[in-house]
Design a protein that fits this description.
By secondary structure, this protein is mainly α. The chain has one domain. Helix content is about 70%, strand content about 0%. It is built from 11 helices and no strands.
Length: about 220
């Protein structure tokens, strides 16, 4: 039932949004600093923070109720993604993390020279972002914390191509806006389908023994 790779497609589908929001920041780093490796360190820090978030969110998801309620998690993830795609969910849900943790990471980074870009990336990994919430909704589904971390690392890696292209010009990304959005909607409906199928399994012995039904192997810890 592991679906950590869904987060990669969510990151890819929403990377146009990531490029528009974070692209200017990367352009500023590119233009104002010539330190070798700064962009790599920045992105490593950002993806590392995503991994930390995914680890803890998946740990929350690994509660003892999961084996009986796994379909609810899938429905929740699908609904969150639909709300994000339809712009009905605010990006400010996790604003407090950047305010209290992200700002401290920036202060640490300012004292560390080129290595400080890693901490800047970690800080920006905590910026209020609906796309990150979409990725975390997938981390919540994972059977253990390490798979949650892996899902968010995959999510971060998927945003790299669009961010790289954004350094050449934001308008190059917006051309693919609709294609990326269709991919996001496809993932959202797949999550909803798996959740609905799980509910149907609780009502139908036939579906419980169907080869299409997922095997539930979530730990009780």
């Amino acid at each position: 039932m592991n679906s950590w790779y869904y987060a990669f497609f969510i990151g890819l589908a929403g990377s146009w949004h990531c490029a528009i929001m974070c692209g200017p920041l990367m352009q500023q780093i590119e233009q104002t600093s010539k330190q070798t490796g700064r962009m790599n360190l920045y992105n490593l820090g950002r993806i590392f923070m995503y991994g930390i978030l995914g680890f803890f969110v998946a740990q929350i998801g690994s509660i003892w109720l999961f084996p009986a309620w796994w379909h609810v998690y899938y429905l929740f993830a699908g609904i969150v993604l639909i709300l994000l795609l339809s712009r009905r969910l605010s990006d400010n849900v996790l604003k407090f993390l950047h305010r209290y943790v992200g700002q401290e990471l920036i202060r640490i980074g300012k004292r560390m020279g080129v290595a400080g870009y890693f901490f800047l990336g970690m800080s920006n990994g905590l910026l209020p972002c609906g796309l990150v919430l979409g990725g975390l909704s997938i981390a919540l589904l994972q059977s253990n914390a390490w798979l949650g971390a892996m899902s968010m690392i995959a999510f971060g890696v998927a945003t790299l191509p669009a961010l790289k292209v954004s350094l050449w010009g934001i308008n190059k990304i917006t051309r693919f806006n609709h294609v990326f959005q269709y991919l996001g909607w496809g993932i959202a409906f797949l999550l909803l389908f798996r959740g609905a199928w799980g509910i149907a399994m609780t009502q139908s012995a036939y579906l419980q023994h169907s080869p299409l039904s997922p095997i539930i192997c979530h730990p009780f810890s």
